Amino acid sequence: PRKIFSGIQPTGSMHLGNYLGAVRKWTELQKKRENITISIVDMHSITMPHNPPTLRDNIFTMAATLLACGIDPSHTTLFVQSSVMEHSELNWILNSLTTMPRLAQLPQFKEKSRTVRDVPLGLFVYPVLQAADIMLYKATHVPVGSDQLQHIQLAQHLARAFNARYGDMFPVCNAIIEENDGSRILSLREPSKKMSKSDQNPKGTINLSDSPEQIIEKIKKALTDFTSDISYNPGMRPGVSNLVNIHAQVTGQSIDTVVEEAKQLDTAQYKERVSEAVIEHLRPIREMINKHLNNRNELIYVLEMGSEKARKMAQTTMAEVRQRLGLGISG
Ligand code: TYM
Predict the structure, then answer these.
(1) 224 alpha carbon to ligand 1 midpoint, in Å?
(2) What is the pLDDT of residues 166-202, one digit of tens each?
(3) Which of 3, 201, 220, 290 is the most buried (most CB within 10 A)?
(4) Nearest-CA neighbor of 146 among 176, 183, 191?
(5) Does domain 3-178+296-325 have CATH number 3.40.50.620?
(6) Residue 74 belongs to what H/E stretch?
(7) Ligand 1: residues whose CB is within 6 Å?
(8) Cα gap 181→255, rounded to integer Å
(9) Would you say the pTM of this structure is higher than 0.90?
(10) 184-290 in CATH: which number?
């Protein structure tokens, strides 16, 4: 049977890229009664300078948002990474199976390390912690957006390296990445880059908690080009194509249908149509986010139950890992 694991950083609130690229996929897998574990990876969020009270708030906001998107804790194990210590323990062990050149070549590290003067070691080993997340639950499948592919490949490499050195124990996981363009939603302001929480320009990112007015404003200001009709050509027209893609994703229509129906519209009119579709799609989610946020006790309960389940699995894995490595004196 498949074992599915994925994670999301509680940095800011969830944005449309997270939702279309990953979170919506998780709820689909959940509907198929798959075995899923989802982690709010707060330890990943401290690899860049952060504000502690904000992080704490963001953890709850992320939990509320995941529930609002349809993550159902009676089917899916939802927990906060730092509540299960075994993540850092396996991270340490995997550090010794990883080489520095391998980490230094990863695109996400190269990008982020450019933005700080002194690069934190945590930022460097970030993908090793991610591999530990996946391996602790012996996950076979990892649903993510396409920006995570290299990190999943490192996790595959580390599972193989562990198995080769200490005997077969970990499955080599598979990435589940949507074939269509949902797996990569671009920034509205800089459509050469992915939509991202750390975007310098907040107008490039649509958050699930944004009000209809904010969504209209952001889409109105989305960078397009000097051609006024609507077509889909990600290479030549990344801005417009990103809007078409978002539109298709939130309405569940094909790209062709969306383009065909926009034939009479110019870019300004089309932006209004996309705004409406996004607002419609997000309206019930936004209402549910607020409902869950107003019930912190429920969130605490859900996350504690999730941690307990996750911890059991993680402890079982770590007992075996320690024994295989000859660590300690038991087992
Ligand atoms: P994070 O928090 O950046 O993003 C969470 C998920 O959203 C996807 N995503 C996108 N998909 C499409 N278009 C975009 N613009 C976009 N931006 C983000 C990401 O691919 C991801 O699936 N390192 C991970 C978190 C993590 C993890 C793990 C994931 C930690 N441990 C173990 C899987 C398994 C990250 O930073 O995701």
Answers:
(1) 26
(2) 999 999 999 999 877 778 999 999 999 999 988 878 8
(3) 3
(4) 183
(5) yes
(6) none
(7) 5-9, 17-18, 21-22, 41, 44, 130, 133-134, 142, 144-145, 147-148, 151, 183-185, 194-196
(8) 10
(9) yes
(10) 1.10.240.10
